[in-house]
Specification:
The structure is a single chain. By secondary structure, the chain is mainly α. The chain has 31 helices and five strands. The protein is globular.
Length: 695
């Protein structure tokens, strides 16, 4: 039974149906309240005794145990006899209430106020409004005179006043001054010593055209502060009065392009710095929200987000709170399209932290947090051969579907996508993932996940040679990117257009290899193909220029040389032989072809025998095709057989086009060439049928 506790008003509890749970007498409620204030920590029995009685009677300890037993029966009525309690537990010298964060309205309120600071203004306004509605009266209302409740009551009261003022500030930022006035009027009247209450009320009145009323409010605030507290108004109140008298431009909502947004940001940041202490845990969660937004800006923003993300995770772990650490790790749900990590070492550290946090979360509940940790593991394990990545992806998806949380499901599907490269020929499966992401995200306003879905479908439709379909997804991604300021999207769509150009140009007939092309009578590429090659090479170089400074080394490093190599191989031209070409991580697969172009076949054969299996990523088929070309040229039968076996499931696809970046043409052409080369040595070999791509 899911129990929910309420302390934002009289202390109470509700069962899963929303019915109140009978908590018996005032001391039963006092025990419960005292345990909630302890926030899942153990409260020794002797402390409970001292808190409940000013002069404890002889049987006080027994009485406390009786209260606890009664509370356990009320909170877990279906617990079998003689089985340990799971909610109100005995531990060491006392008791602890192991409620989840979301099961206590005060804890949930703190979380909502912190989260609102990371949301767009409209969403933040709604979140704050909902959270303020949870208050039913003063916190721990019936224990106002108890010393053990005093500090927590004061803290929650201050947090509520802070939330009221943030709610009002957000309304003003959204141009809803008239709606803010009544609530601010009541707030200032009830808390006349809060200068921000008067300041916001005066500003709201001014923005509704009531300049005289705004000045009257400021005069009233001055009178109260001077006459009753003996202090002068602070600088912000004094400055506002001066600004109203002079009709300062910045008081209006529309001072010019970007002005309102800049002002809202500055005001919100100032309020946050002023009200949330530097050591508060809420700052860590807010930081991750900022890093998430920073990551999609690309360039130095992405690099900084990547760098500070690990620092935030480390800081959270040092605090020893696995639930906080889970939120810090799981909040970084930045959509990812590229299957090679920008920083493999950091990715491994994040995976390790997520695994540690999973093992430390209290048993029972926390399913959303677990799903986010699992999705993180799946994403950060991209391109590896670890069995944990696919396992974590499947678990995250199952949890997300059960919880019916759209944002969580989008995050989990991103992890599933990253783990769909265990063999060739899975473009149709990835296309289905992209289609679900687009539909899900469009329904629920998940913009960055919708862009991800379109990019996944762009890749998949390219692999399936459906370029009109890929064009539509590229255009949709570009429209969303322009509307929501997502500059990295253009990097991928520009590379796609270079691929589109490459896929549309002329190619030599099947079976014509680099060596036969070199010995052709003319020794030259036909003029029409030469022109298209130059055009495609220029398009690739322009696309590569967009990667410079984009903050994505996992994409950038070695990609242009690889794309140009694939272009030349597709046209049966020798590989480039430049000594200083930086092949990046693709060097093992390029080297045999480079050595062949340098007329060093023995070294090429040796290099081919040392080629590792390609990483399980978007270039899996492309790298196997390069291996196949080198195997054919060197007569390496074992490698030809392996390449044929690995590529057969992708017989209906374009090699490499599933990356959305480059292609070596139809996989079937490479399979035909492999079959021909193998049949030359073994006539019994026949082409096998492609495997079912849905497996």
């Amino acid at each position: 039974m899911q129990v929910v506790f309420g302390v934002l008003g009289p202390v109470t509890a509700w069962d899963a149906t929303g019915e109140s749970i009978a908590l018996k007498g005032p001391r039963h409620r006092a025990v419960l309240a005292r345990l909630i204030i302890a926030r899942r920590r153990v409260v020794p029995v002797n402390v409970l005794v001292e808190d409940l009685w000013a002069d404890p009677p002889p049987g006080a300890v027994s009485a406390v145990r009786t209260f606890v037993a009664a509370l356990r029966r009320a909170l877990e009525p279906r617990r079998p006899p003689r089985t340990p309690a799971r909610l109100l537990v005995t531990e060491g010298p006392g008791y602890a209430l192991r409620a989840e964060i979301g099961a206590v309205d005060a804890w949930r309120f703190e979380q909502a106020v912190a989260a609102a600071a990371t949301l767009p203004p409209e969403d933040g306004l709604a979140r704050l409004g909902e959270a303020l509605g949870w208050w039913r009266g003063p916190a721990y209302a019936e224990f106002a005179d108890q010393p053990w409740a005093r500090t927590e009551r004061s803290r929650l009261a201050e947090l509520r006043l802070h939330a009221v003022e943030r709610h009002a500030e957000t309304r003003l930022a959204l141009g809803l001054a008239a709606e803010a006035v009544p609530d601010l009027d009541a707030h200032a009247a009830g808390h006349p010593w809060r200068e921000d209450a008067w300041r916001l009320l005066a500003l709201a009145l001014y923005r509704t055209g009531r300049q005289g009323d705004a000045l009257a409010v400021l005069r009233r605030a001055r009178t109260l502060l001077v006459e009753q507290l003996g202090v002068d108004p602070g600088p912000r109140l004094r400055r506002l009065e001066t600004d109203i008298l002079h009709h300062a431009d910045h008081l209006d909502l529309a001072p010019g392009p970007g002005g309102a947004a800049a002002r809202v940001w500055a005001q919100t940041a100032a309020v946050y710095d002023r009200t949330v202490t530097s050591g508060a845990r809420a700052r860590l969660e807010s930081t991750v929200g900022l890093l998430r937004n920073l990551a999609v800006t690309g360039g130095t923003g992405l690099e900084a987000a990547r760098r500070h993300r690990l620092a935030a995770v480390t800081a959270a772990e040092e605090l020893g709170d696995p639930e906080l650490t889970a939120r810090v790790i799981g909040a970084y749900d930045v959509p990812a399209i590229w299957t090679r990590s920008d920083d493999p070492q950091q990715a491994a550290q994040v995976v390790a932290a997520a695994e540690r946090t999973l093992s430390r979360l209290p048993p029972g509940g926390h399913e959303a947090a677990r799903a986010r940790l699992l999705a993180t593991i799946a994403l950060e394990s991209r391109g590896t051969r670890s069995a944990r990545g696919p396992q974590a992806a499947a678990q995250a998806e199952e949890l997300a579907r059960r919880l019916d949380d759209p944002a969580l499901l989008a995050f989990a599907l991103n992890g599933v996508f990253m783990q769909t490269f265990h063999r060739a020929g899975l473009a149709p499966h990835r296309d289905r993932i992209g289609a679900e992401l687009v539909a899900l995200s469009a329904r629920h306003g998940l913009v960055t996940s919708e862009v991800l879905g379109h990019l996944i479908r762009l890749q998949a439709r390219s692999a399936l040679a459906d370029f009109p379909g890929a064009d539509r997804h590229a255009a949709a991604a570009d429209r969303l990117a322009e509307r929501h300021e997502l500059p990295l999207v253009g990097v991928f769509t520009q590379w796609y257009r270079a691929l589109r150009l490459a896929a549309s140009e002329q190619t030599p007939p099947s079976g014509q290899t680099a060596s036969t092309r070199r010995t052709a009578p003319s020794g030259r590429t036909p003029p029409a193909t030469q022109a298209s090659l130059a055009q495609v090479e220029a398009a690739y170089r322009d696309a590569a220029a967009r990667l410079d400074g984009a903050g994505m080394p996992g994409v950038e490093h070695g990609l242009l040389p690889l794309a140009l190599l694939c272009l030349r191989v597709r046209h049966a031209l020798p590989a480039p032989t430049g000594e200083h070409t930086d092949w990046g991580p693709y060097r093992p697969w390029a080297l045999p072809l480079v050595l062949l172009a340098r007329h060093r076949p023995a070294e090429a054969a040796t290099a081919l025998r040392e080629v590792p299996d390609p990483p399980r990523d978007l270039l899996y088929e492309a790298l196997w095709c390069l291996t196949a070309r080198a195997a054919i040229a060197t007569g390496d039968r074992q490698m030809m057989e392996r390449a044929h076996s690995e590529l057969t499931p992708a017989a209906a696809e374009l090699a490499g086009a599933g990356s959305g970046l480059l292609t070596l043409g139809p996989v079937s052409r490479h399979l035909d060439d492999l079959a021909t080369a193998l049949t030359h040595h073994d006539p019994t070999l026949r082409r096998t049928e492609p495997a079912d791509p849905s497996r």
